[in-house]
């Protein structure tokens, strides 16, 4: 027997069903820069490098796989009541920023976001632990003009004790002032970086 390890193509880290990313300034670009300059200083560059993609690719693939799995499950769960209940939101643009929310629940008018993480589930989902998630979700709520989001999280290693993998769902509710304040922070940072006209 002969076993040869093959190189995994980078294209695998983006699912075939994903829309190509348009050119322009994305919400995630601004969040990444704030994270690098304020939250986790110096730990994330302004753009994803080939080396980072090679290292993070399997994590990204896990996230995309989770998104595809949960989407299919939701569509199968609710076909009788409303087959069009869950719709991809597509790319949105507001004030020069581009956002790509996962889905919109048309029946409840709620943003549906899917995340996977290798962090422990023990600390729960809080803005302190998942700052970038909360900033992104609030930005997408602002863009969609909704005040609520369902966050469905796959904790790959569960609580790192005896739980095994865990799936948890959270309902996030915001008021308009929170969404506006979050959006203003993103716009202000993008202008300070010279990415948006002042």
Shape: globular
Query: How many beta strands in the DSSP annotation?
Result: 7
Q: What proportion strand?
A: 15-25%
CATH architecture classification name: Alpha-Beta Complex
Structural class: alpha+beta
Q: What features would you highlight for this structure?
A:
Lambda Exonuclease, Chain A; alpha+beta; two-stranded antiparallel sheet; 4 helices; 198 residues; five-stranded mixed β-sheet
Structural overview:
The protein has 198 residues and is of the alpha+beta class. The chain is 36% helix and 18% strand. It has 4 helices and 7 strands. It has helices spanning 27-39, 50-77, 131-144, 176-192, and strands at residues 86-88, 92-94, 97-99, 103-105, 110-117, 148-155, 166-173. The strands form 2 sheets. It has a 5-stranded mixed beta sheet. A two-stranded antiparallel sheet has the order 2-3. Helix 3 (131-144) links the parallel strand 5 (110-117) and strand 6. The longest helix is centred in the N-terminal third of the chain and has 28 residues, at 50-77. The chain is globular, with a radius of gyration of 18 Å. The chain starts with 26 loop residues before the first helix and ends in a 6-residue tail after the last helix. The model has no long low-confidence stretch (mean pLDDT 84).
Topology, please?
Blueprint (H helix, E strand, L loop, with lengths): L26 H13 L10 H28 L8 E3 L3 E3 L2 E3 L3 E3 L4 E8 L13 H14 L3 E8 L10 E8 L2 H17 L6
Parallel strand pairs: 5-6
Antiparallel strand pairs: 1-4, 2-3, 4-5, 6-7
């Amino acid at each position: 027997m002969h076993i040869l390890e093959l190189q995994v193509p980078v294209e695998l880290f983006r699912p075939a069903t994903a829309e190509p990313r348009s050119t322009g300034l994305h919400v995630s670009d601004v969040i990444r820069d704030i994270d690098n300059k304020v939250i986790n200083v110096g730990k994330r560059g302004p753009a994803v490098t080939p080396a980072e993609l090679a290292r993070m690719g399997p994590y990204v693939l896990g996230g995309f796989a989770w998104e595809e799995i949960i989407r299919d499950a939701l569509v199968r769960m609710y076909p009788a009541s409303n087959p069009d209940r869950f719709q991809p939101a597509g790319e949105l643009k507001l004030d020069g920023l581009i956002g790509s929310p996962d889905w919109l629940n048309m029946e409840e008018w709620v943003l549906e976001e899917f995340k996977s993480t290798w962090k422990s589930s023990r600390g729960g989902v809080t803005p302190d632990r998942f700052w970038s998630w909360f900033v992104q979700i609030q930005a997408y709520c602002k863009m969609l003009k909704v005040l609520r989001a369902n966050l469905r999280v796959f904790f790959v290693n569960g609580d790192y004790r005896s739980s095994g993998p865990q799936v948890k769902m959270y309902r996030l509710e915001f008021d308009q002032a929170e969404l506006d304040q979050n959006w203003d922070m993103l716009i202000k940072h993008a202008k300070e970086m010279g990415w948006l006209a002042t």
